[in-house]
Every structure is written in C-alpha cells, then in structure tokens.
C-alpha cells in the first residue's frame, strides 16, 4: 500500500468534527480535547521566554536534546520503574507523534493491531496509515471498562501489537495491577509488542496507576509511549516521547 492509498482510506477524527461544530457556538464547555481550563503556568512561560532570549531557536538533534533525554530517562526510572537511558528515549512533537513513531516502527502492512474500544480515535487512524489490520477489544462498563483477558486471548493469535491506554481516554478507567499483569502475560505468550500510552498517568482519582513497562519482563518486547502532556497538559508546552528497546533491523521482534 502506498502512502497515497493509505491517506485516501482515512476518515476524519470525530474529535475535530465536534470542535468545528463547537466553534460556531458561544459559551461552550469543551470536553472533546485533552486541554484544561487554566492557562499555562507562569514558570513554563518564563522558561520558554528565557530560552528564546538566549538564542535557543536553532535546529536541535532529531532525537531531542541530550539533557532533556537524560531528564526523561531519570523520570522513567524514578516514577515508572523502567530501566531507561537517554539512548532509549526519543523526544517527539507531542504525544501523537510518539504513538505514530512507535506503531509504525513495529508494524508492517497487513500486521494485526489490537486497539481498545472505545479508544482514542488517533490509534485507529495511525494503524490504518501504517497499513495495519485493526482488531478492536471491547472495554465494557460491567468490567469497569477494563480489558477482557479472554477476549484478548481470542484476538491475539496472529496479531503483532497490542495498544494499551491507562488511564483510559475516553473512559478514564485505570487498569488494576491484576489486569495489567494478565495482559502482559498474554502478550508474552503470544509474542505481542505492548505499546503503552500512559499520557494521563498523573490524573488518577481512584485506584493506582501501574506502568506496563515497569511490570514487563526484560525479555518481553514492549514500547512505552508516555507523553509529558500527562504532567504538563497546557497546549503550548506538551512535547511527547517514546521509550523502548532496540530491535534488529529485520524488525522481526517476535523471534
């Protein structure tokens, strides 16, 4: 499939359709996008101003500034229990780019990808753009919007990747440790790459956030794609990042 063909088959995100309709109205409470109702904190604005004034406006390394990648790796070790180094971190232009980079890196056209339903619309759009076959696993209210492990097991046979999102967008559900461990065991058994989107890891009102990558066996393939939007959700300052292991250039990560 060519890029042209992939683009022809893409639909439009429902989020953007709602935003377009909301733009024609007044006094609208926006719930369709992940944006809070408070301005960017002063210290973030001041830091950006200092960087601009100091001349930090040139091209940087494509993987991100070394000091920033060092800081992100330290955060992953401290807060998520992931033995990350700066070499395993790539800074991206937002969390969407992090998910796009990770998913396209570990799939080939025709590979099956397991996606949560309901889920963030961009997951499916990115999978379609990569030429992957989308298989949805349901998040039912009677199960607290957590994955049904039996259903996942039935879908995972020849799949390549499972995308997990906890805390979930849009349900807000936080997967229990038991569920996380069950999903990881299933992924290891079927040889699935686990792409874990933990962008809302610090927005938890009930339960405990369990980072998938911190609970994964070192031998199990996985990619964790948190975005600092989880801690810094104001729109002008929300880069993303990927953290994961290296695979051989053959990309046959299931061997």
Topology:
Elements: H1 3-8, H2 14-22, H3 42-53, H4 66-80, E1 89-92, H5 95-106, E2 112-117, H6 121-129, E3 133-138, H7 149-155, E4 159-165, H8 177-190, E5 193-197, E6 222-224, E7 240-244
Parallel strand pairs: 2-3, 2-4, 4-5, 5-6
Antiparallel strand pairs: 1-7, 6-7
Helix pairs in contact: 5-6
User: Major β-sheet, in short?
Assistant: 7 strands, mixed
Shape: globular
> Helix-strand pattern, N to C?
HHHHEHEHEHEHEEE
Mean pLDDT: 82
Cα-atom radius of gyration: 19 Å
What is the CATH top level name of one domain? Alpha Beta
Q: Which structural category do the helix and sheet elements fall into?
A: alpha/beta
């Amino acid at each position: 499939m060519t890029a042209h063909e992939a683009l022809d088959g893409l639909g439009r995100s429902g989020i953007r359709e709602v935003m377009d309709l909301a733009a024609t109205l007044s006094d609208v409470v926006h719930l369709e996008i992940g944006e809070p109702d408070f301005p960017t904190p002063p210290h973030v604005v001041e830091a950006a101003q200092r960087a601009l004034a100091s001349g930090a406006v040139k091209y940087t390394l494509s993987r991100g500034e070394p000091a920033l990648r060092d800081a992100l790796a330290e955060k992953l070790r401290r807060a998520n229990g992931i033995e990350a180094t700066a070499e395993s971190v790539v800074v991206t232009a937002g969390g969407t780019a992090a998910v796009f980079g990770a998913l396209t890196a570990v799939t080939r056209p025709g590979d099956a990808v397991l996606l949560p339903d309901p889920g963030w619309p961009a997951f499916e759009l990115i999978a379609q753009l990569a030429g992957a076959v989308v298989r949805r696993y349901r998040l039912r209210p009677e199960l607290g919007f957590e994955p049904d492990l039996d259903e996942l097991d039935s879908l995972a046979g020849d799949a390549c990747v499972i995308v997990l999102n906890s805390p979930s967008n849009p349900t807000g559900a936080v997967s229990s440790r038991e569920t996380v461990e069950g999903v990881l065991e299933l992924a290891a058994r079927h040889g699935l790459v686990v792409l874990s989107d933990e962008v809302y890891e610090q927005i938890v009102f009930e339960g405990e956030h369990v980072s998938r990558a911190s609970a994964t066996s070192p031998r199990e393939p996985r990619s964790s794609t948190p975005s600092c939007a989880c801690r810094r959700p104001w729109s002008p300052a929300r880069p993303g990042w990927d953290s994961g292991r290296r695979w051989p250039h053959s990309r046959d990560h299931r061997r």
